[in-house]
Amino acid sequence: MTIAWYESLARLERSVRFGPPRWGGRGGAGLLLVTVLLVAAPLRSEDGHDAWLRYASIDDAAAQRRFDTLPAVVVALGDSPVIKTAQQELIRGVRGMLGRTLRAETSLPNESAIVLGTFNAVREALPEVGWETGLTPDGYRLKGARARGRTFLLIAAAHERGVLYGTFAVLRKIALRQSVAALDESSQPSAPLRWVNQWDNLDGTIERGYGGRSIFFEGGRVAEDLGRVRDFARLLASVGINGCAINNVNADSRLLTEPYLPQLARIAEAFRPWGVRLAISVDLSSPKTAGGLDTFDPLDTRVAQWWNDKVDQIYAAIPDFGGFVMKADSEGRAGPSAYGRTHADAANVIARALKPHGGVVFYRAFVYDNHLDWRNPKNDRARAAYENFHPLDGRFEENAIVQIKNGPIDFQVREPVSPLLGALEKTNEAIELQISQEYTGQQRHLCFLVPMWKEVLDFDMHARGAGTPVKDLVAGRIFHQPTGGIVGVANVGRDANWLGSHLAMANLYGFGRLASDPSLTARQIAEEWTRLTFGADPRVVSALVDMQLQSWRTYENYTGPLGAGTLTDILGSHYGPGIESSERNGWGQWHRADQQGIGMDRTLETGTGFISQYRAAVARVYASLRTCPDDLLLFMHHVPYTFVLHSGKTVIQHIYDSHYEGAEETQQWVREWRSLEGRIDEQRFAAVLARLEYQAGHARVWRDAICNWFLRQSGVPDAKGRAGHFPDRVEAESMKLDGYRSVDVTPWGTASGGKAVECESPARPCTASFRYQGKPGWRDLGIEYFDQSNGASRFRVYVNDQVVDEWVADDDLPARQPNGSSSTRRTIAALALRPDDIIRIEGTPDGDEKAPLDYVEVKIH
Ligand code: GCW
Fold first, then answer.
1. Which atom in ligand 1 lies closest to the alpha carbon of residue 574?
2. Does pLDDT of 567 surpass 50?
3. What is the three-class DSSP state of 716?
4. For 798-829, how does the pLDDT look when each residue is reduced to its tens digit (9 = 90+)?
5. Where do runs of H (alpha helix) occur along 376-504?
6. Helix ranges, 115-216 (H)
7. Which end of the chain is flanked by fewer CB atoms within 10 Å, N or C?
């Protein structure tokens, strides 16, 4: 028995516990025995369905005692279904966490009680407790009070929804082990409208969704089983979200036709107990496409009448309907330009129909020309939102809200704040953030976005002198607007854990918490979420919070630096590296990298003039190379690669360094996470580990693609000698090939050496082998291969004649070719290798995936 065999046994044993299902393999029974002996499972397996609302038992006796005085009764005053929900939730939570079942009552008993009700109801039941009631509808007040010789915990609000939010706040405190004995506090959400948008299609797919198929639709209809819809509404309510638009903003007009109304009403019913208002996205052309008119001109009276009638019909079925979201004149959608009308005309015809019912229309400012002439250096997509909407300021109805993406381009890993957010003075505005990680790793990469959102919400636009942060502008506070909001594109799906990734749920949680209370810090939110999701173990909390807080910067480090954009494949999946895909097309996500330098000149003097859309105090900072922050340098300026940053590094060296640092950080996370084994339930531990390991591999793909590309473009070597030098690698195309042939990979930077190998015959296994020529010792083998979505090739690795690993490439990555989206790494740790050992990889193709292989890296263990 060779040492390699022992090691592979241990490794296979690990992968039986953590890895994907395997096929074939050796020594099955022995392995199982080892597995059973080694795996103690002290923690209950969890699939993530409960997210942060697990109500896990508080098993620490001292912490339990903190809640000894909690009354045994919970009273729901009045007959509001939302308050009844709150009562049931409190019972559920207390039972889970404290093991006690509260008694549900509808009037005050002769004993201490938790009391849920509106201010009016509480005042009536307990007139002796004084209340100040100046809160907005969704605000709540928590108060411990003594009266009639008893103790009360009062959870009260102006509106039933506030009572529910107050109840979740109390449950959160208990879960965080904070005493609720003598509470006296009130809370009031910052912006009145806190919505999520789902981009679900009627066929059950989700645009830019990475957590499975739609929970709302299947096969062209609303889903039969709305259990998950109810659970989603509960999650939303727990973080203060009060509206949800359920369908893609690239809207299907059929949803406005009659057969769908009763179906929509079912969803509204599932939302209602949780205080979440149903909304839908609509297309401006609906009067024509769904209504049979020969026009959708917003100024045509027949069109106005059609919207009025349609909206009346909706409200007859759904009295608490929230309203509409509209994407018009954008990316091929119909819009008011078809009739020479303005966006205000389009928004207003719908707003007027909604107004009598209390509904709102969110009109998206994501309007730009995607056929811009890239040859004209003065053209600039970033200017579009401001140019389209600023001239219309003051022309929107009071229940219309302009919904503005956080940045002027499109949810890139880093962008400046959209100047439009600081420019509207007489129009309601909402900021649109993206929870779904379209450009930030699609939930396969850990990228906690709360720190980014914090920066955006805190950014001072100087809209009326200093002191006008975005969070106040979108709340309508600065210019005294009737309403405003914070919107998040969520895109949860049917995966048990909602977003396809346990850790990504921190973004949904954080979005809601920030939307309700933007004064929370990113650290507070990360800590809360971690404790609620993974428990109070201080090692888990500190490791995970640090990872989360670091992760946005890390993702930025190994993807798009210095404000250049994510540098991803913008014409395809928006996932893997694709630097050139931004250029020479009309989409306008340009970074203008060439052989001399990189960046978009957006100054007024020599560039596109975008910077002058900001108020003077902000524009001044961006306009000058001396004051422009490094993080946004390439968004605002075109500079040579040798330009020296405030950090003291040149731009090119920053690109190399940040990419190496970022990739290294992801590897560190794998080690960190492994060190938590046994402190987290097996199921979630394994799922997160698999994602982090994948990320560490993919970060390396990113690093190499970007560094190699810039090395070749700039001709400036990496001062640390790393870029372009891979002494530990053996390229597949240079191995001894049997049945494999060398192919060019596009874009070239996404495969080592620009090439890979693929099997020639779809029916036959093929092999690539090489002779190990290093020193004897323990080695880690990194096998870089491509896992496409159009096949499930099998790989088997031999050292001499010993199988040391085997797997199926059956992941569902967004690529049907070998490239930077499908490139994946399999690591075989701690193999004992001797000079002249033959390492052989056998690939068996499947479907259109020809067992593609990039290289093998041999590193000292
Ligand atoms: O980011 C882009 C996405 C599109 C999306 C669009 C939008 C719904 O790539 O998929 O369409 O933005 O926000 O409208």
1. 9
2. yes
3. coil
4. 999 999 999 999 999 999 999 999 999 999 99
5. 384-389, 450-458, 470-474
6. 119-125, 160-175
7. N
Cβ neighbours of residue 581 under 8 Å, at least 6 residues apart?
Answer: 568, 569, 570, 571, 572, 747
Closest-lying ligand 1 atom to the alpha carbon of residue 248? 8
Please state whether beta strands 323-326 and 360-364 pair in parallel, antiparallel, or not at all (unpaired): parallel
Of 196, 197, 250, best ligand 1 pocket probe by most atoms within 8 Å of the beta carbon: 250
CB-based pocket (< 6 A), ligand 1: 199, 207-208, 248-250, 327, 366, 410-411, 438
DSSP calls for 167-192: HHHHHHHHHTT---TT-EEEE--SSS
Q: What is the pLDDT of residue 269?
A: 98
What's the 283 CA to ligand 1 centre distance in angstroms? Answer: 15
Q: Which two structure tokens, joined as six digits, stand for 599?
A: 């960046």
Could you tell me the two tokens for 606?
A: 């020599």
For residue 454, give both structure tokens: 């914090």
Whether residue 97 is predicted with pLDDT greater than 80 in this model: the reply is yes
Q: Are 634 and 591 in contact (CB under 8 A)?
A: yes
Q: Distance between CA 709 and CA 828 in Å, rounded? A: 28
Query: Tell me, what DSSP letter sits at residue 568?
Result: B
Crossing angle of the two packed helices 260-271 and 227-238, in degrees rounded to 10: 50
> Hey, whose CA ends up nearest to atom 1 of ligand 1?
410
Percent of the chain with pLDDT over 90: 93
Residue 529 · residue 549 · CB < 8 Å: no
What's the whole-number mean pLDDT along residues 573-600? 96
For ligand 1, the distance from its centroid to the CA atom of residue 696, given in whole angstroms, is: 27
The atom number, within ligand 1, closest to the CA of 207 reads 10
Residues annotated catalytic, as ranges? 331, 410, 438
pLDDT tens readout for residues 656-709:
999 999 999 999 999 999 999 999 999 999 999 999 999 999 999 999 999 999
Contacts of 727 (CB under 8 A, 6+ apart): none
Angle at which helices 682-714 and 538-558 pack, to 10 degrees? 20
Question: For residue 748, what is the DSSP state?
Answer: G
Residue whose CB lies within 8 A of the most ligand 1 atoms, among 208, 327, 573, for a mutation test? 208
Specify the ligand 1 atom closest to the Cα of 208.
10
The sign of the dihedral angle between the CA atoms of 312, 314, 319, 324 is negative
Q: Is 158 helix (H, G, I), strand (E, B) or coil?
A: coil
Expressed in angstroms and rounded, the spacing between residue 472 Cα and the centre of ligand 1 is 26
CA-nearest of 633, 657, 635, 660 to 645 is 633
Measured in Å, residue 162 CA sits from the centre of ligand 1 at 33
Place 129 in a pLDDT band, splitting at 50, 70 and 90. Answer: confident
Within 10 Å of residue 316's Cβ, how many Cβ atoms?
A: 12
Q: Which of 198, 326, 406, 438 to mutate to test the pocket of ligand 1 (most atoms within 8 A of CB)?
A: 438
* Predicted structure pTM score: 0.95
Residues 6+ apart with CB under 8 A from 384: 367, 368, 369, 408
The closest residue, in CA terms, to atom 11 on ligand 1 is: 250
From the alpha carbon of 489, which atom of ligand 1 is closest? Answer: 13
Q: Tokens 């190998």 appear where? A: 757
Q: Quote helix, strand, coil % in the chain, to nearest 5.
A: 35, 20, 45
Burial of 262 (0-12, 13-18, 19+ CB in 10 A): exposed
DSSP codes of every residue in 402-427: EEEESSSSSS-SS-PPPGGGGT-SSS
Calculate how far, in angstroms, residue 826's C-alpha sits from the geometric centre of ligand 1: 33
Strand 150-157, strand 113-118: pairing = parallel
Does position 26 have pLDDT exceeding 70, yes or no?
A: no
Helix count and strand count (H, E) for the chain:
21, 29
Measure the CA–CA gap between 323 and 361, rounded to whole angstroms: 6
Q: Tokens at residue 344, please?
A: 């205000």
In the reported structure, the alpha carbon of residue 250 is separated from the centroid of ligand 1 by a whole-number distance in angstroms of 8
Give the Cα separation of 187 and 61 in Å (integer).
30
